User: Fold this.
Amino acid sequence: MGYQNGVLLGQRTREVLERVRLYVPHAWDDWAFFRRAAAELYQPKLPDGIGSEIEGTLAGMRDAGVDEVDFLDLVALNGYFDTSYSYYYYLKAQQAAARGQSMPPMDEHGGCSAFAATGGMTKDGAFVLGHNTWFPYLIARWNVLLDAAPDGGRRFMMQCYPGTVYSGTDFYLNDAGLAVTETTITGLFTFRPEGVPYFVRARRAIEHATTPDEWQAYMLEDSNGGYADDWIVADVKTSELMMLELGTHHHRTWRTTDGYFTGCNVARDPEVRQETSFDYEDTANCCNSRLSRWEGLLQDARGVDAEFAKAALADHLDVHAGGLRPSRSTLCGHVESDGTGLPEWEWGPYYPGGSLDGIVTTAELARQGKVWAHWGKPCGEDYRWREHLAAHPEYAWQAPLAEDLIAHPWTLFNAGW
Ligand SMILES: [Zn+2]
Assistant:
């Protein structure tokens, strides 16, 4: 297990690690910090199966001619979100407390737009689910769909970074009929370093769960609070939707068989909100703007299908500024064209980041192991790094490893189970 990941994606894993090493000191701390977190927090919590899968990936990478990556690099890459979005801020909060201060302003990076609808809203009465990922374009590289068949587990397909054992973006299907996605909760700084990392829980959940309840139990068990998310889980067998808002110390679950859930990086539950530092009243905030855009799109929607979902992920209506204007506040995020940047995540003006993909599935497609996937910005616009960095030289540090992000057509992928 893992060997094919190493052989087929080894060179791309090496390239991802090069870019991540360049990127992380500009956002949080250097790669050595990520490796220390991997050694101290995650390695002791790796189940045997995941540890041996990472060993298998390394063996495959060596056979593909990549021998400068070690076990700790791969554990650190798997733990990327636990470390950057959670552990880093937990340490900052502790340092602030030691000085007698409260949590400093958050500079968490991340973002995504997601929704699912079911029942009377959809064309066939069964669920429709869609997601786009927001990320710095420098370290985009999420254009992998991995089809896995572990011994003793469910077959599953996920979108992921090369060289990893879990999704990260997150998008999963399994052959028990679960479809799973999420958006990150902005500004959440709580964490339990002694708990099981997010990437281990998320992997075990999709590998073993057959119902949303079972999936939730895997996510809750001894959680470290890493990468706190609003998870949306859809079940082919019932077309029921579940949303799990999962903080470190609090969580809340909602369910519907006739309605919708949305994700745009904003916590809904009052107790989970207490674990965050975030201004829920600020309508200029990009997460709040997108929340009201989702409501506008969905509250009276009828006949929702895969085409509706693709269009929603490419939506450019900015409810804060008004009009069709791709920006930080639109469901298809364009921070690179936004003079405000994304202060919620400490992305400066015209930061080269935003939405970079789209994934859509329906109950009918998920039953067969199929997804519509789109690489590049969901609206079809390209990002050209040379022009952008020339106009915004404050990001010239990215030039050595920058790449264009070209939008490809929506494509139907089929795991065929
Ligand atoms: Zn767009």
